[in-house]
Design brief:
This protein has seven helices and 13 strands. It starts with a strand and ends with a helix. This is glutamine synthetase.
Length: about 350
């Protein structure tokens, strides 16, 4: 039997890339294995990745997942390559120079579900605002939770596809939600976040709703939380050292590379990182135990476990590229450890 192979990639739009996808029919008796997915070409001139005179780019399969939204189908996550096989400039996955299972990542993906007609989050009236923030975070009931049927369907699809989604919850603003994905290795973490975003967009299509990943879609002036993608991370040393000096050294090193990190943490993040709504200022750096107003939070669990565990960088925006975020986190963490 033939299978539908949905090739998914990231386009070249700036400042934020979008997902693109097209379907190939496999040959008979498709194995479901990545090595049996061939390299495919596409028209880069239609995705802001090439000119019309030299438009062919390549899609290199890097991960494959069953697609529960279709019959006999798979989602194939791909990297974009130039015609000569080198990574395209839009290929964030290729920026990961060091990737192994020693680094663990847990991304907390926040997002808004938006009404197509009003262009406002679900739960917002057409010409105004709902009750102030307070009842929506982990809220239950029709007055507090909006779009739960979409969130639950997305959760089920991700789990059936084999994505390591560890949980979901309603977030602080009305119509705002979150899911968490854990993975070992930067590339696997990035693959899973992007495929989960693909499934979310596809599920929302059914309901005539769109997904908003802008970190501050309601504007920075209003008293509504923005959306982030908090990055929890650790390596073998952090998980076993039992030494506060290791965590301090890593955090101090992060403070020396503010712009390097912020530059890949998502567009319009300055509207979110204001020092309000559980954020630190984009222009400053801070870290502290159990402090959600800091740039990096040291979880209380890390301290209680004898300084063994993880750190949480709270600065990445909801629209950030997890490949680029993981790459810079690995780089800075290694620099900090090297100075011990």
């Amino acid at each position: 039997m033939k299978a539908k192979l949905e090739y998914v990639w990231l386009d070249g739009y700036k400042p934020t890339q979008s997902l693109r996808a097209k379907t190939m029919m496999s040959k008979d008796n498709f194995s479901g294995k990545l090595e049996d997915c061939k390299v495919w070409s596409f028209d880069g001139s239609s995705t802001e990745q090439a000119t019309g005179g030299s438009s062919d780019l390549l899609l290199k399969p890097v991960a494959i997942y069953p697609d529960p939204t279709r019959k006999n189908a798979y989602v194939v996550m791909t990297e974009v390559l130039n015609a000569d096989g080198t990574p395209h400039e839009s290929n964030g996955r290729a920026t990961i120079e060091s990737d192994d299972d020693d680094f663990w990542f847990g991304f907390e993906q926040e997002y808004f579900l938006m009404d197509m007609e009003t262009k406002m989050p679900l739960g917002f009236p057409a010409n105004g605002y709902p009750a102030p923030q307070g009842p929506y975070y982990c809220g239950v009931g029709a007055k507090a939770a909006y779009g739960r049927e979409i969130v639950e369907e997305h959760f089920d699809v991700c789990l059936e596809a084999g994505l390591n989604v560890e949980g979901i919850n309603a977030e602080v603003a009305a119509g705002q939600w979150e899911y968490q994905i854990f993975a070992k290795g930067a590339k696997d973490a990035g693959d899973q976040i992007w495929v989960a975003r693909y499934f979310l967009e596809k599920v929302a299509e059914k309901y005539g709703v769109y997904v908003e990943l802008h970190p501050k879609p309601l504007g920075k002036e209003l008293d509504w939380n923005g959306s982030g993608m908090h990055a929890n991370f650790s390596n073998g040393l952090m998980r076993t050292c039992g030494d506060k000096k290791v965590f301090d050294a890593i955090c101090e090193e992060f403070g020396k590379h503010i712009q390097e990190h912020v530059s890949v943490y998502g567009a319009y993040n300055d509207q979110r990182l204001t020092g309000k709504h559980e954020t630190a200022s984009i222009n400053e750096f801070s870290y502290g135990v159990s402090d959600r107003g800091s740039s990096i939070r040291i979880p209380i669990g890390t301290v209680e476990d004898g300084w063994k565990g993880r750190l949480e960088d709270r600065r990445p925006a909801s629209n950030g590229d997890p490949y680029k975020i993981a790459a810079v986190i690995i780089s800075t963490t290694k620099k900090g450890i090297a100075k011990l």
